[in-house]
Amino acid sequence: MTHELLIAGFGGQGVLSMGMTLGYAAMIEKKEISWMPSYGPEMRGGTANCIVIVSDKRISSPIITTFDTVIALNQPSLDKFEKAVKPGGLLMYDSTNIINPPTRTDIDVQPIAASEEASNMKNSKIMNMIVLGAFLARKDVVALNSVMGGLKKVLPDRYHHLLPLNEQALRRGQELVAHVEQM
Hints:
The chain is an alpha/beta fold and 183 residues long. The chain has a single domain, classed as Pyruvate-ferredoxin Oxidoreductase, domain 3. It is 36% helix and 26% strand. It contains six helices and six strands; from the N terminus they run βαβββαββαααα. The protein has helices at residues 15-28, 75-81, 114-120, 127-138, 144-154, 163-176, and strands at 2-10, 32-39, 47-55, 67-72, 85-94, 108-112. Strand 2 (32-39) and strand 3 form a beta hairpin. The model has no long low-confidence stretch (mean pLDDT 92).
């Protein structure tokens, strides 16, 4: 199993930490991992994306241009990376922040109202974990308990009191796509 994923959005949406959490989760499961971040000079509000490759075998190159899955958290990311999804791949996007939905018909498209759900859960910072939970419900890349282990490594100790809320967000994301068959 090799899964090539691109996560993209604005800085401050948790793009890089989502990818890093997935990477640590894969390491916990003794899988090969490549995590390659890319971001502008701005701390928040600039563009950010990361490529995450999780595999059972050695990864030959972290530099790829087409992906099994693209997760787009805002309109500019969707516009830029919709074409980067391999035919038959998955395009997951935060429908709360998208005005013009994807148009491709040769891919699986999964909208998820992650920002809206995060607002309902009274914490906008868990939006990325809602999306990650939805992704893991669709693609069996790593187990949820491994993600929680990865999150403990990514979150500074002063935020560990938020781990239960993040686990709730992951589970809520899974629930939001529970009606869709896992691929």
